[in-house]
């Protein structure tokens, strides 16, 4: 026996290279994360997203349960306290009719956020449906939808809202809160859907060229199945970013229309209504404007920050 063979018997067989074992969770191989999983993991590490999310959650809780934050009636009037400043009894003071400004700001959160949410939902539903169909079918249908959307894009938002809401208000004999809110939501949605349509159309045109869509079409899948099962999940990201930012913008749009006297109005309580009621007393009682305007600015800023964080997380180029 040679020295080489003897040394091999002593040292044993050569070591076998270790195989890389995939990461496991609970003893099972961990599934690769998709776009939404990576986006959520990225969002959790962004302070901007955390701050915006906390503010929005608090505002949603206030809108859902305003009675937890104040026991005062937002419609109760006491003219002896007209335009009194902030105090321990009323943290935000009283308005021109002696109503508690803090209670009205708390209860106004519900109307302002409901208008923003419903208007965003209506805008995305109308624009997203037309956009994904136009992007998939193309041809004359795409041209027709594009030219039709350009009519609304060329119409100034405020002017269009004035025409629509003035017509609605002239037909309303007895104003009611649900009907007033419905009119404002419809006006914002009708005038804003072309932007969502264009975003969804661009995403649909890109998705239509992908191999999975071509494979589904080759296997005989119909247009509804391809649009709903294959294209829609991959076209939602840009529309979601737009919807998040637009929600804050629609809350601001409601305040603008209410300030002009054509949006929400009594008996509805909203930040825009409070700002409109304070315009004649800004110098004598600035607290009537500062507090509802502060709620409005913080809310719009929170949704804009949330939209920016979501956009950065869903954009692969930002990583």
Helix content: 55-70%
Strand order of the largest sheet: 1-2
CATH architecture: Orthogonal Bundle
Structural class: mainly alpha
* Strand and helix order: HEEHHHHHHHHHH
Share in β-strands: under 5%
List keywords for this structure.
319 residues; mainly alpha; MetI-like fold; two-stranded antiparallel sheet; 11 helices; disordered N terminus
What's the SSE blueprint?
Elements: H1 3-11, E1 24-25, E2 28-29, H2 35-43, H3 47-64, H4 101-137, H5 139-153, H6 157-171, H7 177-208, H8 211-218, H9 223-259, H10 271-277, H11 287-314
Helix pairs in contact: 2-11, 3-4, 3-11, 4-5, 4-7, 4-9, 4-11, 5-7, 6-7, 7-9, 8-9, 9-10, 9-11, 10-11
Please outline what is shown here.
The chain crosses the membrane at residues 48-69, 113-139, 151-168, 180-200, 239-264, 284-310. The chain has 319 residues and is mainly α. Helices cover 67% and strands 1% of the residues.
Kindly describe this structure.
The chain has 319 residues and is mainly alpha-helical. It has one domain: MetI-like (MetI-like fold), CATH 1.10.3720.10. The protein has a two-stranded antiparallel ribbon with strand order 1-2. α4 packs antiparallel against α5, α9 runs parallel beside α10 and α9 packs antiparallel against α11. It starts with a helix and ends in a 5-residue tail after the last helix. One of its GO terms (biological process) is transmembrane transport. This is ABC transporter permease.
